[in-house]
């Protein structure tokens, strides 16, 4: 077998670059790694650093290199600088604190820290500050402390930053590193000063006690900064004519922390800050970096008002700067102070809004955040207008934030309910797919609560839906509204919108279109289906059509829709008398409650009907006493069961619509009453499984030319029976065959006594009030046998 | 603090990658990929900042510059001044230029370890260490000399006293 010699690093790099495909590259690397492994095992130790260097290179490209970890240790332990250099680099790249192996270099680091070659000490410190774990830091803290006060500034500056890292890993070590700071601040070497300021900043951020302690160095910091600012051009650390801008920025940050909420310190800084703010050369980036930091510091400490105004104005100027970087930083800075100095930032609102239109996505994102923060009750209309137009054209990754931002602002500051509805509507139309899930619930809640706007809302939503059925949240809200307020939609006139003539067929067709569209989510279909059901009681005709559609979905693959369809179908077939009551208008849902959907609607209907039931029950018992009829006709003198069984239990039983029981024998309807066009008809159902139960639906229709208003129907039965009346679907029976009023009577007849029923009607018709009391004749025997 | 310093070419191939926080190998590669993806989408005349990204959420930013065939990217958190980091990047590039004499991508490719050494003299533990180009270059030269002398005396231990530098 021919031994292929391993490559030098340069050659390896060349070969990798020469590979034409990923697979080729992998092959080259795998081959070389095999060599490296072999060399690690039994190669020349002097060559080891070259092998590791190669390994580190392939590691950077993403290939596994963990087998080099032990080699790092060996190289670090070597006495040669060349070995240590690569070894420590490898340690930084391959070892991290999550692997146990990392602890093994602690001893080597310790040795290297205390020997005299500063290049080696530098390596050790660098590695320690990059990957030193808490454990390592604890072990080596005293070594590092010793190095802080050595003569070599090279080692000292590295030791200082290592100390910062150690404090981050092991906060208790602050105790060791706090004392030397004061002395270090007297040094002149910029690297040491930079590190020291960083160290002090870290200490202050971690401990209020340290913060208090270091307030006393504020004068010294001010002095250092003043020297930097007033010194002429110096070659040493200046960038574009600004003396060591990095150190200036770092000092300004520390001053900010020390001066925050502290009058005395703030006062000490005021003059200097003013000086920097007015004298810094802003033609180059370095000067601007210092100026921005100054502005942030001014705004954060207890500065004099004049200085604050100056600062905000500087930012305002920067918003108009040609340099995009400057504009970006200006927006960021303004965002930071929008809470604390709201009115000052408000003055720049027009410019901020301009930045929304910037093609640079970074800038428009910042401008969006700031714009949203600037919306208040006085500018909400104008701002929303701007944000809406931004929403129409903004990059996709900002759409969700923009949409939810507008909705939130609308919720907080909406001047009128109508404006609020319009705004949400517009957002749903523009960016419907990007809104959060609760937007639908929020909008339906909002609309439901604004009774005066029901007609307006349903019209707007209908028009929007007719144009576009693809935006799911919009479709869901529109379907819900059409279902709830379909009657208002058809009524024809509403002052707030253009006259809209809508035919029943159109409405049904639209909902059917939603149901059938492939763009509609299952949840959306659920909304549409329920809406159709509701319309079956709100429209005059169309019941058959609706029933057809509903029954189609009885075999839908989606389980949720199938269940609904089957239940609704059953509602048509066997519980038709209850349909109106069940599909009544929704009561106002509690804010923050569960998502409003079909199931929740039904249970809320239950609760609503229960409360109505309780009141009509007491009326019924009063009526019995009053009418004093039908006493003791039964042979079985059993004590009548209590007249108030718990409503909750019985209604749940009532609404427990079974899926497919055998159809009960149908009992013919009975025309019970007729007067001047008002007709009362009774339909009967005896549910299987409960032979004692009889359900009667009283339906009042009006073929006359005048409405019947204030319609109340009461009933009475013999003592051995139990009677419950549900709340009627309404109190007005509209003229000309308008929507009938229905009411459900529930009669328990445990003794199977012959049924007798008296009705009492009161209403207004043709301007007169009418009262009628009569017994219902010709009750079919099937109602009680 | 600086979370990472990345240099990759126009095709996303990493040339230098230095992380100052412990990330797993997979995460590191993912960061490189995502950073490249974001940065390469940017137009030429936009600002040099990108906010709110993978490595840590909205607190972090990318500060980047496009030099010929290379992207230099500094991933920092909110405690760093954006404009100051831009200057730091500039110092870094100028130092590379000085050390390699008109640096180009090939230099970075062939001498990746040297780039790491230079970087280590400027940024340590995610914090800015030294920004004076002359100091940095002086140190690098001294270290290179040390290596060269060892190569010449292969096997012999280096003499300590000769290599303690005054500052």
Outline the structure in words.
Chain B: One of its GO terms (biological process) is intracellular protein transport. Chain B: It is a peripheral membrane protein. Chain B: It is found in: Cytoplasmic vesicle membrane; Golgi apparatus. Chain B: Belongs to the adaptor complexes small subunit family. Chain B: Keywords: Cytoplasmic vesicle, Golgi apparatus, Membrane, Protein transport, Transport. The complex is a heterodimer of chains A (785) and B (167). Chain A has 785 residues and is of the alpha+beta class. Chain A is built from 35 helices and 10 strands. Chain A has a 5-stranded antiparallel sheet with strand order 3-4-5-8-7. A 3-stranded antiparallel sheet of chain A has the order 6-9-10, covered by helices on one side. In chain A, strands 1-2 form a two-stranded antiparallel ribbon. Chain A is elongated. Chain A starts with 8 loop residues before the first helix and ends in a 10-residue tail after the last strand. Residues 593-661 of chain A have low confidence and may be disordered. By secondary structure, chain B is α+β, with helices and mostly antiparallel strands. In chain B, the strands form 2 sheets. A 5-stranded antiparallel sheet of chain B has the order 2-1-5-4-3, sandwiched between helices. A two-stranded antiparallel ribbon of chain B has the order 6-7. In chain B, helix 2 runs parallel beside helix 5 (133-152). Residues 155-167 of chain B have low confidence and may be disordered. The chains are: A alpha+beta (785), B alpha+beta (167). The interface between A and B is large, with 76 and 60 residues.
